[in-house]
Design a protein that fits this description.
Distance between the termini of chain A: 45 Å
Mean pLDDT of chain A: 92
Helix content of chain A: 25-40%
Structural class of chain A: alpha+beta
CATH topology of chain A: Nuclear Transport Factor 2, Chain: A
Largest interface: A-B, 52 and 52 residues
Oligomer: homodimer
Number of domains of chain A: 1
Number of helices of chain A: 4
CATH architecture of chain A: Roll
Radius of gyration of chain A: 16 Å
CATH class of chain A: Alpha Beta
Strand content of chain A: 35-45%
Shape of chain A: globular
Order of helices and strands of chain A: HHEEHEEEEH
């Protein structure tokens, strides 16, 4: 572990910068930006998988299926928040994306980063579609 | 911070136990189990909110709207995984629930717990509907 001076604002800026760099590549169809900063024991959810994806090998297989498929004309990383807990940092944000065909999507995202000898690495990714439950009548019933 | 002996298995068991106790109350329409173990700076996503919910006061207002609405006939906490990072613990699982009217739902869940003087408290909750994206043709296109 490094022992450099640090504070919450610096850590938040570093984490958000890592995320934006990976998102920029993601938006051009390149998932390697995320793979390069994901830990061996990363766990992952998105709205398309049947159950949690466990480990970098399984995540790599999934991301290779996504490679070249995502083409974002633009995105907004909205209201990012970083909760710093020692060698863990929890980044949460809402996300707006526009595909190159004009399709717009809104997302909820949680990334958990862990600091080790290589720097900050993602150990947990959770993407979901904002208000996806509103489209399911049976689930709206209760709320 | 306590300095008691600890190991990953003990911490995982403690975290999962906390979650199950809160879920048991949640399934009876009582959100207070979660509120009592959530930190002041908790952040929260579910498939019904328009954007991230920030802080225990905002979360309390939301949960009070859910109070008495959830009646689970049963649930399964599937394949829980705990990643321990010092005073942080990242619990992820898939979740199956059956309402008292027989409606079945499948969920992805991430809970981040932080250890402080009061014990482990939730600082981040993210609930999403498993494969919610499959129902959105415009989003299936890409994957």
């Amino acid at each position: 572990m490094r022992e450099l001076p640090e504070n919450e604002a610096e850590i938040a800026a570093a984490i958000i910068s890592l995320e934006r760099k990976a998102l920029d590549r993601w938006g051009k169809g390149d998932p390697s930006g995320f793979l390069e900063i994901s830990a061996p024991d990363v766990v992952y959810f998105d709205p398309f998988v049947e159950c949690r994806v466990d480990g970098i090998e399984e995540l790599t297989r999934l991301y290779e299926r996504y490679r070249g498929q995502v083409k974002l004309a633009g995105y907004e990383l909205l209201n990012p928040n970083v909760q710093w807990i020692g060698d863990a940092a929890v980044l949460t944000f809402n996300f707006f994306s526009r595909d190159d065909d004009g399709t717009e999507s809104r997302w909820n995202c949680t990334e958990v980063y862990r600091r080790g000898s290589e720097g900050w690495r993602i150990v947990q990714t959770h993407w979901a579609l904002t208000q996806a439950g509103r489209s399911k009548a049976g689930l709206r019933r209760s709320f």
